[in-house]
Amino acid sequence: MNGGSGVAGSVFMSAQASAENWALNFNCNMTPTIQNKDWGSQAVTQYTFGSCIDKQTVRYSLVEGAGHSTDFGENVDLYGVIWSIFTSTDADLPARNVKILFLGDSYTIGESVCNTCSFPEQLKSSLEVEYSE
């Protein structure tokens, strides 16, 4: 979340700096809309940069105190929450034409986990099962 040094000498931008970089490159309004939400027992602050070229939106969500967990309790369907973010856009693009950039820790990028165990692969599999035609 805060950025810093990674493996093999890589340096990661913070979540905020990364989102701002994407927003800048899509010529978005650089003042994000901020919403406070709850995902189960976790408080979430969601930042959305709008008015971008090609009706793009740049959004990032900070889940306070989640650490390395994606378990927010029995009543939270994390994949459903993520899918609702994509389908809530005003863009004229089909909802299934989704591009996701995952930034994060070793679980996110899949370091030291099986090929299907990383969060992006789990999300992809879940969405394919749920929304395939």
Q: How many individual domains?
A: 1
**Kindly state the mean pLDDT as a whole number?**
78
Total count of helical runs of at least 4 residues: 4
Number of strands: 5
DSSP helix fraction: 25-40%
Distance between the termini: 35 Å
Q: Which runs of at least 5 residues are low in confidence (pLDDT < 50)?
A: none
Q: What portion of the residues fall into strands of 2 or more residues?
A: 15-25%
Helix and strand element order? EEHEEEHHH
Structural class assignment: alpha+beta
Rg over CA atoms, rounded to whole Å, is 15 Å
Strand order of the largest sheet: 3-4-5
**Which sheet architecture does the biggest sheet show?**
3 strands, antiparallel
- Global outline: globular
What's the short version?
It is built from four helices and five strands; from the N terminus they run E-E-H-E-E-E-H-H-H.
Structure description:
The protein has 133 residues and is an alpha+beta fold. It has one domain (9-131). The protein is 29% helix and 19% strand. It has helices at 15-25, 78-87, 106-109, 119-131; strands at 4-5, 11-12, 33-39, 42-49, 58-63. Strands 3-4-5 form a 3-stranded antiparallel beta sheet, covered by helices on one side. Strands 1-2 form a two-stranded antiparallel sheet. β4 (42-49) and β5 form a beta hairpin. The termini are far apart. 5% of the residues are buried. The mean pLDDT is 78.
